[in-house]
Amino acid sequence: MERENWTSRLGFILAASGSAIGLGNIWRFPFVTGTNGGAIFILIYLAAILFIGYPILVSEMSLGRKTAKNPIGAFKSLAPNTSWYLVGALGVLSGFVILSYYSVVAGWGMSYIFKSLTFNVDSNFPQIFSSHISSLTEPILWHGVFMFLTIAVIGAGIVNGIQKIVKILMPILFGIIFLLIIRSVTLEGSAAGLIFYLKPDFSAISFQTFTDAISQAFFTLSLGMGAIITYGSYLSDKESINESAAYVLAFDTAVALLAGFAIFPAVFAFGLDPASGPGLTFITLPAVFTQMPFGTFFSLIFFLLLTIAALTSSISMLEVVVAFLVDEHNWNRKKASYLIGFLIFLVGIPPLLGYSSFSNFSFLGMNVLDTYDWFSNSIFLPTGGILTSIFVGHIWGSSNAIKEANKNSRFHIGSIYSLLLKYIVPAAVLFIMLFTIYQTI
Ligand code: PHE
Ligand code: NA
C-alpha cells in the first residue's frame, strides 16, 4: 500500500501538537511546577524547551521526513549495517511502556468526566479517588475504553484517523482551557496563586529543579521515543520543518502555561496545597471543584480536556509501534493496531494494580506506575534523546539535517543548532541522566 501523507501543513501541525499536548501539560507540568516552587521552575523549563527541546524536535522531524520511515527504518536507511537501528527499537519499546501507564492515568480522567455528572459534587468529590481505586473493575474498564479509542483512531490511518480526529479535538481543547482560566482567575483569593506562579523565588532552586525541567521538556514535546520521527515521516517535502516545529513548541508551551493559570489560582483561592504532587489534578483539584460555583460544569469540562489531550497523545505512541510493523513487516494496519493495543492494555495492568488499594504492588521500592514513569522519563527518553542528537549531529551529519529542516522555511537554522545538537544537548542530558540514576540508587 502507498504510504500516506498529511494532506496539509495544518494537519501535520495539529497532529504533532496533539502528540505534544497531553497529560504532560495538564497533569504533569502543573504538579512538577508545584513541587518545584512555582515560577522559578518555569524559567528553567523554558530554557530547557528552547535549547534542548527545539534542536531535538527539529532533528526528529528531519529524520522522519528524509527517510519516510518509522524510527527503526529511519536509522536503518541512513546508517545501514550498523547498530543504530537500536535507537529506533528503544523508541518502540518506550512507546509500549509509556502508553501502558499513560492510558491508566487517562482512564482515571475519563471516569471523572462521568463522576462529575453522577456524583453529588458538593459533598463527596474528594473521596472519589479513594473510591475509584478501591475497585478493580472500574480502573480496568476505563483503561480498556481509553485503549480502545486509541486503537480505533490508529486503525483508521493517518488521514482518516489521526488527522481527522485532531482537527475536531484540538479546537475544543483550546476552547475549554480558556473557559477554565476565566473561572479560576475570577475566584476570590486567586491572586496568591498568580504570585506563586509568576514571581520567581530563587531560593527554591536546587539540582532537582534542573533534572525535573529537562525530563519534563522531553516528555512534553514527545521527544526521545520516535513519535515525532514517525509523524515527520508523513510530512510532504513542500512543508517547512523549522516553522512547523516552532508552532508545535509554541502551542505545547502555551497549553502548559495556561493549564497552570487554570489550576493554581483556584488551588490558592481555596487554601489548598500546590505541592501535593501527582494527586494535584486528581485529589486537590476535585476538592476545589466541590467548593466553587458551577463546580460540576467546570469539573466536567476539565476532565474532558484531560481526556482529549491524552487521546491525541496516546495515538502518537501507538502509531510508533504500528508504523514499524506496517513498514518493516508488511502488517495490515488494523490488525497491528488491535493486536499491539491489546498487548499494551495488558502491560498496563501492573501499574494499574499498583494504584489499587487491593494490592501493594511495588517494584524498586516504588509504586509500579511510578516505576514505569521513572524508567521512561529518567532512562528511556533521555537515552533516546542523547543517541538521536549524536546520530543526527555526527553520523547523518548536522549539515544534512539543516538542509532538510530549512527546506521551504522562512527562517533558517545553522551553526547554533549544530553546536547545540552535537555537543551541548548530549553532554547536558547525559550529565542530568547519570545524576538522576545515582540519586535514585
Ligand atoms: N507529549 C505527551 C504529553 O505531554 C506525552 C508523550 C510522550 C507523547 C512521548 C508521545 C510520546 O503528554
Ligand atoms: Na506536552
UniProtKB/TrEMBL annotation:
GO cellular component, one term: membrane
Top-level division of the source organism's lineage: Bacteria
Main location: membrane
Keyword Transmembrane helix annotated: yes
Membrane-crossing residue ranges in chain numbering: 38-63, 84-104, 140-160, 172-197, 217-235, 247-272, 297-326, 338-358, 378-398, 419-438
The keyword Chaperone appears for this protein: no
Record keywords, A-Z: Membrane, Symport, Transmembrane, Transmembrane helix, Transport
CDD domains associated with the record: SLC6sbd_Tyt1-Like
Membrane topology of this protein: Multi-pass membrane protein
GO molecular function term, any single one: symporter activity
Annotated InterPro entries: Na/ntran_symport, SNS_sf, YocR/YhdH-like
Subcellular location: Membrane
Family: Belongs to the sodium:neurotransmitter symporter (SNF) (TC 2.A.22) family.
Official protein name in the record: Transporter
